[in-house]
Write a structure and sequence with these properties.
47% of the residues lie in helices and 15% in strands. The protein is of the alpha/beta class. It has a single domain (6-314), classed as Indigoidine synthase domain (Indigoidine synthase fold). Strands 1, 2, 3, 4, 5, 6, 7, 8, 9, 10, 11 and 12 form a 12-stranded mixed sheet that branches. The protein is globular. Bound molecules: pseudouridine-5'-monophosphate (PSU) and manganese (II) ion. Manganese (II) ion binds at residues 148, 150, 272.
Length: 316
Protein backbone atom coordinates (compact mmCIF):
# COMPACT_ATOMS: atom_id res chain seq x y z
CA UNK A 1 0.00 0.00 0.00
CA UNK A 2 1.38 3.44 -0.86
CA UNK A 3 0.84 6.49 1.29
CA UNK A 4 -1.55 8.07 -1.19
CA UNK A 5 -4.04 5.25 -0.75
CA UNK A 6 -6.48 4.93 2.09
CA UNK A 7 -8.49 1.87 2.86
CA UNK A 8 -12.21 2.43 3.06
CA UNK A 9 -12.57 -0.32 5.63
CA UNK A 10 -16.10 0.79 6.47
CA UNK A 11 -17.13 -0.30 2.98
CA UNK A 12 -14.93 -3.23 2.13
CA UNK A 13 -11.38 -4.19 3.03
CA UNK A 14 -10.86 -4.96 -0.66
CA UNK A 15 -11.53 -1.42 -1.86
CA UNK A 16 -8.85 1.25 -1.71
CA UNK A 17 -9.89 4.80 -2.34
CA UNK A 18 -7.36 7.22 -3.73
CA UNK A 19 -7.01 10.10 -1.28
CA UNK A 20 -8.44 12.70 -3.65
CA UNK A 21 -11.46 10.51 -4.37
CA UNK A 22 -12.09 9.86 -0.70
CA UNK A 23 -11.91 13.57 0.09
CA UNK A 24 -14.31 14.45 -2.70
CA UNK A 25 -16.77 11.76 -1.66
CA UNK A 26 -16.79 12.74 1.98
CA UNK A 27 -17.32 16.39 1.02
CA UNK A 28 -20.19 15.41 -1.30
CA UNK A 29 -18.38 16.72 -4.36
CA UNK A 30 -18.99 15.12 -7.80
CA UNK A 31 -16.91 12.05 -8.66
CA UNK A 32 -16.91 10.12 -11.95
CA UNK A 33 -15.80 6.49 -12.18
CA UNK A 34 -13.85 5.27 -15.22
CA UNK A 35 -13.14 1.74 -16.44
CA UNK A 36 -9.80 0.30 -17.52
CA UNK A 37 -10.69 -2.53 -19.91
CA UNK A 38 -10.83 0.19 -22.54
CA UNK A 39 -7.20 0.93 -21.57
CA UNK A 40 -5.91 -2.66 -21.57
CA UNK A 41 -8.13 -4.30 -24.21
CA UNK A 42 -9.99 -1.52 -26.02
CA UNK A 43 -7.22 0.67 -27.41
CA UNK A 44 -3.58 0.17 -28.38
CA UNK A 45 -0.65 1.90 -26.66
CA UNK A 46 -0.09 4.89 -26.56
CA UNK A 47 -3.60 6.01 -27.56
CA UNK A 48 -4.93 4.13 -24.52
CA UNK A 49 -2.91 6.09 -21.98
CA UNK A 50 -3.33 9.42 -23.78
CA UNK A 51 -7.10 8.93 -23.79
CA UNK A 52 -7.26 7.80 -20.17
CA UNK A 53 -5.38 10.92 -19.09
CA UNK A 54 -7.29 13.28 -21.37
CA UNK A 55 -10.60 11.93 -20.07
CA UNK A 56 -9.44 12.57 -16.50
CA UNK A 57 -8.46 16.14 -17.45
CA UNK A 58 -11.84 16.81 -19.05
CA UNK A 59 -13.62 15.62 -15.91
CA UNK A 60 -11.43 17.85 -13.74
CA UNK A 61 -11.98 20.88 -15.98
CA UNK A 62 -15.71 20.31 -15.65
CA UNK A 63 -15.37 20.48 -11.86
CA UNK A 64 -15.54 16.78 -10.91
CA UNK A 65 -12.95 14.29 -9.66
CA UNK A 66 -12.08 11.28 -11.86
CA UNK A 67 -11.77 7.82 -10.31
CA UNK A 68 -10.13 5.41 -12.73
CA UNK A 69 -10.55 1.86 -11.46
CA UNK A 70 -8.34 -1.25 -11.64
CA UNK A 71 -7.41 -4.24 -9.50
CA UNK A 72 -3.93 -4.98 -8.19
CA UNK A 73 -2.15 -6.19 -5.07
CA UNK A 74 -5.30 -7.80 -3.72
CA UNK A 75 -7.47 -4.68 -3.82
CA UNK A 76 -9.84 -2.80 -6.09
CA UNK A 77 -8.23 0.60 -6.58
CA UNK A 78 -10.69 3.43 -6.99
CA UNK A 79 -8.72 6.35 -8.34
CA UNK A 80 -5.28 5.89 -9.89
CA UNK A 81 -2.28 8.20 -10.16
CA UNK A 82 -0.96 9.23 -13.57
CA UNK A 83 1.97 6.90 -13.03
CA UNK A 84 -0.32 3.97 -12.20
CA UNK A 85 -2.39 4.57 -15.35
CA UNK A 86 0.75 4.74 -17.50
CA UNK A 87 1.98 1.55 -15.90
CA UNK A 88 -1.25 -0.39 -16.43
CA UNK A 89 -1.48 0.80 -20.03
CA UNK A 90 1.91 -0.77 -20.78
CA UNK A 91 1.54 -3.98 -18.79
CA UNK A 92 1.13 -7.06 -20.98
CA UNK A 93 -1.37 -9.83 -20.29
CA UNK A 94 -3.54 -7.87 -17.88
CA UNK A 95 -6.67 -9.83 -17.00
CA UNK A 96 -9.98 -8.40 -18.19
CA UNK A 97 -12.11 -8.70 -15.06
CA UNK A 98 -15.89 -8.76 -15.08
CA UNK A 99 -18.24 -9.65 -12.18
CA UNK A 100 -17.35 -13.36 -12.11
CA UNK A 101 -13.60 -12.65 -12.09
CA UNK A 102 -13.45 -10.22 -9.15
CA UNK A 103 -13.04 -12.72 -6.27
CA UNK A 104 -10.55 -14.86 -8.18
CA UNK A 105 -8.42 -11.88 -9.18
CA UNK A 106 -8.43 -10.50 -5.63
CA UNK A 107 -7.65 -13.86 -4.01
CA UNK A 108 -4.69 -14.39 -6.32
CA UNK A 109 -3.53 -10.76 -6.18
CA UNK A 110 -3.57 -10.59 -9.99
CA UNK A 111 -3.45 -7.32 -11.89
CA UNK A 112 -6.69 -6.75 -13.78
CA UNK A 113 -8.61 -4.09 -15.63
CA UNK A 114 -12.32 -3.72 -14.96
CA UNK A 115 -15.13 -4.06 -17.50
CA UNK A 116 -18.28 -1.98 -17.35
CA UNK A 117 -19.87 -4.58 -15.04
CA UNK A 118 -16.89 -4.76 -12.68
CA UNK A 119 -16.44 -0.98 -12.68
CA UNK A 120 -20.10 -0.52 -11.73
CA UNK A 121 -19.59 -2.88 -8.78
CA UNK A 122 -16.46 -1.03 -7.70
CA UNK A 123 -18.12 2.38 -8.06
CA UNK A 124 -21.05 1.21 -5.96
CA UNK A 125 -18.75 -0.15 -3.23
CA UNK A 126 -16.98 3.21 -3.15
CA UNK A 127 -20.18 5.26 -3.15
CA UNK A 128 -19.80 6.70 -6.67
CA UNK A 129 -23.03 7.03 -8.68
CA UNK A 130 -21.82 8.14 -12.11
CA UNK A 131 -19.60 6.17 -14.47
CA UNK A 132 -18.31 7.11 -17.92
CA UNK A 133 -17.28 4.66 -20.62
CA UNK A 134 -17.17 4.43 -24.42
CA UNK A 135 -19.61 1.66 -25.16
CA UNK A 136 -21.19 -1.04 -23.06
CA UNK A 137 -21.17 -4.73 -23.86
CA UNK A 138 -24.44 -6.30 -24.98
CA UNK A 139 -26.08 -9.09 -26.93
CA UNK A 140 -23.72 -10.30 -29.63
CA UNK A 141 -24.98 -11.00 -33.13
CA UNK A 142 -25.79 -14.69 -33.35
CA UNK A 143 -26.37 -14.88 -29.57
CA UNK A 144 -29.22 -17.32 -30.23
CA UNK A 145 -26.43 -19.80 -31.12
CA UNK A 146 -23.52 -18.63 -28.98
CA UNK A 147 -25.37 -17.34 -25.88
CA UNK A 148 -22.83 -14.50 -25.87
CA UNK A 149 -24.52 -11.78 -23.85
CA UNK A 150 -22.30 -9.39 -21.92
CA UNK A 151 -22.47 -9.44 -18.13
CA UNK A 152 -22.73 -5.64 -18.42
CA UNK A 153 -26.47 -5.96 -19.04
CA UNK A 154 -27.16 -7.97 -15.87
CA UNK A 155 -25.08 -5.49 -13.92
CA UNK A 156 -27.16 -2.59 -15.19
CA UNK A 157 -30.17 -4.45 -13.84
CA UNK A 158 -28.64 -4.83 -10.38
CA UNK A 159 -26.25 -2.05 -9.50
CA UNK A 160 -27.24 1.55 -8.77
CA UNK A 161 -24.94 3.50 -11.08
CA UNK A 162 -25.63 5.90 -13.96
CA UNK A 163 -23.61 4.75 -16.98
CA UNK A 164 -22.85 7.35 -19.65
CA UNK A 165 -21.89 5.75 -22.97
CA UNK A 166 -22.10 6.37 -26.72
CA UNK A 167 -24.33 3.33 -27.15
CA UNK A 168 -23.05 -0.05 -28.17
CA UNK A 169 -21.07 -0.85 -31.26
CA UNK A 170 -22.84 -2.40 -34.18
CA UNK A 171 -20.56 -5.43 -33.66
CA UNK A 172 -23.42 -6.31 -31.31
CA UNK A 173 -27.08 -6.84 -32.05
CA UNK A 174 -28.28 -3.43 -30.90
CA UNK A 175 -31.98 -4.26 -31.22
CA UNK A 176 -31.66 -7.36 -29.03
CA UNK A 177 -29.47 -5.48 -26.56
CA UNK A 178 -32.24 -2.92 -26.11
CA UNK A 179 -34.84 -5.70 -25.73
CA UNK A 180 -32.82 -7.28 -22.92
CA UNK A 181 -32.36 -3.91 -21.21
CA UNK A 182 -36.13 -3.42 -21.36
CA UNK A 183 -36.73 -6.86 -19.82
CA UNK A 184 -34.22 -6.06 -17.07
CA UNK A 185 -35.97 -2.77 -16.28
CA UNK A 186 -33.07 -0.49 -17.18
CA UNK A 187 -34.04 3.03 -18.32
CA UNK A 188 -32.26 3.87 -21.58
CA UNK A 189 -32.06 7.64 -21.97
CA UNK A 190 -31.11 9.34 -25.23
CA UNK A 191 -29.03 12.40 -24.38
CA UNK A 192 -30.33 15.26 -26.52
CA UNK A 193 -31.65 12.70 -28.98
CA UNK A 194 -34.62 10.37 -29.45
CA UNK A 195 -32.37 7.70 -30.90
CA UNK A 196 -30.12 5.19 -29.24
CA UNK A 197 -26.62 5.91 -30.56
CA UNK A 198 -24.43 3.28 -32.24
CA UNK A 199 -20.99 4.29 -30.95
CA UNK A 200 -19.24 5.30 -34.22
CA UNK A 201 -22.48 6.73 -35.56
CA UNK A 202 -25.17 8.86 -33.95
CA UNK A 203 -28.20 6.77 -34.79
CA UNK A 204 -28.55 3.00 -34.45
CA UNK A 205 -31.96 3.01 -36.11
CA UNK A 206 -33.44 2.10 -32.73
CA UNK A 207 -35.15 4.48 -30.36
CA UNK A 208 -33.98 5.21 -26.85
CA UNK A 209 -36.50 4.72 -24.08
CA UNK A 210 -36.83 8.49 -23.44
CA UNK A 211 -35.08 11.65 -24.53
CA UNK A 212 -33.39 13.85 -21.92
CA UNK A 213 -31.86 17.23 -22.62
CA UNK A 214 -30.04 18.25 -19.46
CA UNK A 215 -27.78 16.71 -16.82
CA UNK A 216 -30.36 17.79 -14.21
CA UNK A 217 -33.00 15.63 -15.88
CA UNK A 218 -30.73 12.59 -15.73
CA UNK A 219 -29.96 13.27 -12.06
CA UNK A 220 -33.61 13.66 -11.16
CA UNK A 221 -34.67 10.46 -12.96
CA UNK A 222 -31.92 8.53 -11.16
CA UNK A 223 -32.88 9.95 -7.78
CA UNK A 224 -36.53 9.08 -8.22
CA UNK A 225 -35.68 5.57 -9.43
CA UNK A 226 -33.55 4.89 -6.37
CA UNK A 227 -35.95 6.67 -3.98
CA UNK A 228 -38.64 4.27 -5.19
CA UNK A 229 -36.41 1.36 -4.31
CA UNK A 230 -36.02 0.42 -7.97
CA UNK A 231 -32.50 -0.91 -7.76
CA UNK A 232 -30.24 -1.00 -10.77
CA UNK A 233 -28.53 1.37 -13.14
CA UNK A 234 -29.56 3.83 -15.79
CA UNK A 235 -28.03 3.98 -19.23
CA UNK A 236 -27.42 7.36 -20.86
CA UNK A 237 -26.79 7.11 -24.61
CA UNK A 238 -24.77 10.16 -25.61
CA UNK A 239 -24.11 10.27 -29.36
CA UNK A 240 -20.63 10.82 -30.78
CA UNK A 241 -20.08 14.50 -31.75
CA UNK A 242 -21.23 15.19 -35.30
CA UNK A 243 -17.79 16.07 -36.66
CA UNK A 244 -16.32 12.83 -35.32
CA UNK A 245 -19.00 10.48 -36.64
CA UNK A 246 -17.85 7.80 -39.10
CA UNK A 247 -19.53 7.01 -42.40
CA UNK A 248 -22.17 4.38 -41.49
CA UNK A 249 -21.68 2.37 -44.67
CA UNK A 250 -17.92 2.14 -44.34
CA UNK A 251 -17.93 1.23 -40.67
CA UNK A 252 -20.68 -1.34 -41.10
CA UNK A 253 -18.71 -2.95 -43.91
CA UNK A 254 -15.66 -3.17 -41.62
CA UNK A 255 -17.81 -4.60 -38.83
CA UNK A 256 -19.17 -7.25 -41.16
CA UNK A 257 -15.66 -8.25 -42.17
CA UNK A 258 -14.38 -8.30 -38.57
CA UNK A 259 -17.27 -10.54 -37.53
CA UNK A 260 -16.45 -12.99 -40.32
CA UNK A 261 -12.80 -13.13 -39.29
CA UNK A 262 -13.77 -13.74 -35.65
CA UNK A 263 -16.04 -16.57 -36.71
CA UNK A 264 -13.39 -18.12 -38.99
CA UNK A 265 -10.79 -17.93 -36.21
CA UNK A 266 -13.28 -19.35 -33.69
CA UNK A 267 -12.81 -16.50 -31.22
CA UNK A 268 -15.05 -17.04 -28.17
CA UNK A 269 -15.77 -15.81 -24.64
CA UNK A 270 -14.16 -12.69 -23.27
CA UNK A 271 -11.75 -12.49 -26.24
CA UNK A 272 -14.56 -11.64 -28.67
CA UNK A 273 -14.96 -7.92 -27.90
CA UNK A 274 -11.21 -7.07 -27.79
CA UNK A 275 -10.64 -9.05 -31.00
CA UNK A 276 -13.36 -7.20 -32.88
CA UNK A 277 -12.15 -3.80 -31.66
CA UNK A 278 -8.59 -4.49 -32.84
CA UNK A 279 -9.84 -5.78 -36.21
CA UNK A 280 -11.94 -2.67 -36.75
CA UNK A 281 -9.00 -0.42 -36.04
CA UNK A 282 -6.92 -2.31 -38.60
CA UNK A 283 -9.67 -2.34 -41.22
CA UNK A 284 -10.41 1.39 -40.89
CA UNK A 285 -6.71 2.35 -40.77
CA UNK A 286 -7.12 3.91 -37.35
CA UNK A 287 -10.31 5.87 -38.08
CA UNK A 288 -12.33 3.79 -35.62
CA UNK A 289 -9.78 4.50 -32.90
CA UNK A 290 -9.93 8.23 -33.50
CA UNK A 291 -13.73 8.17 -33.27
CA UNK A 292 -13.49 6.08 -30.11
CA UNK A 293 -11.25 8.69 -28.47
CA UNK A 294 -13.57 11.56 -29.39
CA UNK A 295 -16.71 9.87 -28.12
CA UNK A 296 -15.18 8.88 -24.79
CA UNK A 297 -13.97 12.44 -24.30
CA UNK A 298 -17.43 13.79 -24.96
CA UNK A 299 -18.98 11.24 -22.59
CA UNK A 300 -16.54 12.43 -19.93
CA UNK A 301 -17.84 15.97 -20.22
CA UNK A 302 -21.49 14.90 -20.01
CA UNK A 303 -20.70 12.46 -17.18
CA UNK A 304 -19.02 15.20 -15.15
CA UNK A 305 -22.07 17.42 -15.68
CA UNK A 306 -24.41 14.63 -14.57
CA UNK A 307 -22.27 13.95 -11.47
CA UNK A 308 -22.36 17.67 -10.65
CA UNK A 309 -26.15 17.82 -11.06
CA UNK A 310 -26.51 14.75 -8.84
CA UNK A 311 -24.24 16.23 -6.15
CA UNK A 312 -26.17 19.52 -6.27
CA UNK A 313 -29.52 17.77 -5.96
CA UNK A 314 -28.25 16.02 -2.81
CA UNK A 315 -27.60 19.39 -1.17
CA UNK A 316 -31.11 20.67 -1.78
N1 LIG B 1 -17.08 -1.74 -25.89
C1 LIG B 1 -16.20 -0.87 -26.44
N2 LIG B 1 -14.93 -0.81 -25.95
C2 LIG B 1 -14.54 -1.56 -24.88
C3 LIG B 1 -15.52 -2.43 -24.29
C4 LIG B 1 -16.75 -2.48 -24.83
O1 LIG B 1 -16.52 -0.19 -27.37
O2 LIG B 1 -13.37 -1.48 -24.47
C5 LIG B 1 -15.15 -3.23 -23.07
C6 LIG B 1 -15.91 -2.70 -21.84
O3 LIG B 1 -15.05 -2.78 -20.72
C7 LIG B 1 -17.06 -3.68 -21.68
C8 LIG B 1 -16.43 -4.96 -22.16
O4 LIG B 1 -17.56 -3.79 -20.38
O5 LIG B 1 -15.59 -4.58 -23.25
C9 LIG B 1 -17.46 -5.95 -22.59
O6 LIG B 1 -16.86 -7.19 -22.77
P1 LIG B 1 -17.77 -8.49 -22.95
O7 LIG B 1 -18.46 -8.28 -24.26
O8 LIG B 1 -16.77 -9.59 -22.98
O9 LIG B 1 -18.67 -8.53 -21.75
MN1 LIG C 1 -19.16 -12.02 -24.08
Amino acid sequence: MTTTLLTSSALSPYVQLHEEVQEALSAGRPVVALETTIVTHGMPYPANVETALSVENIIRSAGAIPATICIKDGAIHVGMSRHEIEDLAQTKDVIKASRRDLPVVLANRYTASTTVAATMIAARLAGISVFVTGGIGGVHRGAERTMDISADLQELAKTDVIVVCAGTKAILDIGLTLEVLETLGVPVLGYQTEQFPAFYTRDSGHKANFRVDTPQQVASIARIKWDLGLTGGLLVGNPIPMDAELDPERINQAIHQALQTAEAQKITGKEVTPFLLAELERLTAGESLQANVRLVEYNALVGAQVATALAESAHQ
